[in-house]
Specification:
The protein is an alpha+beta fold. Helix content is 40%, strand content 17%. It has helices at 9-16, 65-77, 118-135, 148-157, 164-180, 220-231, 241-252, 259-281, 294-303, and strands at 23-29, 37-45, 48-56, 95-97, 100-106, 187-190, 199-202, 205-209, 216-219. The longest helix is centred in the last third of the chain and has 23 residues, at 259-281.
Length: 304
């Protein structure tokens, strides 16, 4: 469950007075995610129900939140289906609730897809391409918190939890990641976490992309690798050539890849496997992780 921070009805009603959203009807914790406290919030204004998502930041600081709010406002300005922050009566997007940074956004239509088709992959590829192109027009910047130094340091810190075979493979991937990080490949702001539970669909039509809180400046091909690993993985833990090609087709309809990006994609897929293995090992407590780190460790073994 991701609702780490709880509160009373009175406290929420007082918080909502900062916005022109009407009266509180109900709120429900969202039992997903591993970093923030999230709630569905329903209000009523002029006899119409309005649906929102309330996110209370558990890790990000007050100083970091303006980057994400500006990013979402920028993408919304370009007409992309993202949850732009609700502005307060004083035209602020950054707010405080329970003494923590908090954002209120509209709830987007759609559901998380379960069975992934080629059309899903085309849609998500097109959207990632549009996101990269739109964010190329902004000067926003956030350093990558999951860079090469982080990877080496985290492998060392988690050494006691890793099987020797896994430790050696992660170290090998980190060495290769250090090498490819020296390449002169296109960079920009990346989503960084475009998993199925961060996309919404109605049928095979994409209706929204959410949870940009791992966005940072990185290689664009790293974002592509992360997304392919998630969306194009089969039940046998292989990467489907059909789904991967569909994703690339969708992406390149918005931004063509450079040859060197194509050549380095397999290495960035391995780096993505290592990143999510390690971040999952850092979540929860030993023996009770919030998401299975072995999922991406197994994929790394298959791809290596």
């Amino acid at each position: 469950m991701s609702a780490f921070t709880t509160f009373s009805q009175d406290a929420l009603e007082e918080f909502l007075l900062n916005f022109d959203v009407g009266n509180l009807i109900s709120w429900t914790p969202i039992r997903a995610g591993i970093e923030n406290s999230n709630y569905f919030v329903i209000t009523r204004k002029h006899d119409q129900e309005r649906n929102f998502v309330l996110t209370i930041m558990e890790i990000l600081t007050f100083e970091e939140i303006p980057f994400f709010n500006s990013l979402l406002m920028h993408l919304s300005h370009y007409g992309l289906p993202v949850p732009a922050p609700q502005q307060t009566l004083e035209n602020m997007t950054s707010t405080t609730f329970c003494e923590k940074p908090t954002v209120l956004v509209p709830k987007l239509a759609g559901k998380h897809p379960v069975q992934i088709s080629a059309n899903h992959c085309i849609e998500i590829g097109q959207m990632l391409g549009e996101i990269h192109c739109a964010l190329a027009t902004t000067n926003l910047y956030r350093a990558n918190p999951f860079d090469v130094d982080w990877m080496f340091r985290t492998i060392e810190n988690l050494e006691h939890e890793l099987q020797e075979e896994d430790r050696l493979l992660l170290k090998k991937i980190a060495d290769e990641y250090a090498d490819i990080s020296e390449l002169s490949l296109p960079r920009g702001i990346t989503h960084g976490d475009l998993f199925r539970d961060n996309a919404l669909f109605e049928g095979e039509k994409l209706t929204g992309v959410i949870d940009f809180y791992r966005a940072c400046n990185d290689f664009l091909i790293q974002d592509i690798a992360i997304t392919i690993n998630e969306w194009c993985r089969t039940e046998q833990n292989d990467i489907s050539a059909e789904l991967s090609e569909s994703f690339i087709q969708g992406y390149e309809s918005k931004r063509p890849l450079e040859n060197e990006e194509r050549e380095s994609l397999p290495n960035f897929q391995l780096a993505a496997c290592a990143r999510f293995t390690l971040t999952r090992l850092l979540s929860g407590v030993e023996g009770n992780r919030l998401k299975d780190p072995n999922e991406y460790m197994r994929l790394a073994a298959r791809l290596s």
